[in-house]
From TrEMBL:
The protein's name in its UniProt record: RRM domain-containing protein
Short name of any one Pfam family annotated for the protein: NID
InterPro entries: Nmi/IFP35_dom (IPR009909), Nucleotide-bd_a/b_plait_sf (IPR012677), RBD_domain_sf (IPR035979), RRM_dom (IPR000504)
Record's keyword terms, sorted: RNA-binding
One Gene Ontology MF term: RNA binding
Claim: Metal-binding is one of the keywords in the record: no
Species for this entry: Paramormyrops kingsleyae
Annotated RRM domain residues: 8-82
Superkingdom of source: Eukaryota
Signal peptide start and end residues: none
Amino acid sequence: MDSSKARRTLVVSGVPDALPPSRMADKLVIHFQRSKNLGGDVQHVQYPTNLKGVAFVTFDGIQDAERVLKVDHVLEDKEFPDVFLFFRAEVDLSMFGDLNGLIQELKDSHRSVRFSLLMSKRAAVVEGPFKAMKKLREDLITRMQSTGYRSRESGAGRCVVSVVGGLQEDSTWVDTNVFKYIWKFQHRKLDRCFQKYAVEIETQKQGDLTQIILSGTEHSLIMSARSELEQLVATWMSDLRTQKIDYGSLDRHQRERLLGFCKDASLQHPDVLFVSMETCIEVVGPSASSYNFCKEVEGMMCDTNKQPSKNAYLS
């Protein structure tokens, strides 16, 4: 290591191993860039190292490293959600027109989120802390609703339209996983809502978002049902988290075993929903429950393999 880099690099000891290495590295970056910690721009974090509980943090400038040393640093438990709730997702943008313009607007509005446009798929890969990603999702839902986008399959739009038989319909967009969770754990509440306003629903999944189409004979009742549904979704969105257990590299037998472990874990965590996807299992529930569910399943896999699992992990 050259002398300049050595002067810009700090040795951080006592790093907890409660999170995957990549997430802990993200946490260290967040911690040492915070102004309250007298931080500065972090150039690189080396973690894990060959020393247990030790990380090397390299700053852009020598003055940043020297300033950080003026205070004591403690990685408090309450800060952990900033890291293990750091998300990466692919977002379908096919319902929007000018993607380059849209991405630039989103970058300006959501500066803590990283965007990578996938023009060939009319989509984008987005990465960022949970709170920032949540605001981005809400922004996209609002933009989608304001465009009056119509589902290619149903032809249903955001505005109320007349259909055969004198019925009217309206639609709204909600988070797919949140709606799945509500459908499982709050199904009776949904039924009461729809029965009270005499409406029927149809769903059209569009990736991470689901379009809920409500139909009935009276416009005012449809609007009331939609409002109540959106309020219910908003309440649960603030409480629910989605974790992922990757199984893309597992064979059929290993996947079946993993699903069995998930069923066992669900007995201990009855407020958690797990859904088998193509390359992963999505785990939806309150923050602590969903995280503990994944750690418990990961531990079962490790115990079965008699070694730390390299195939199933939190992402």
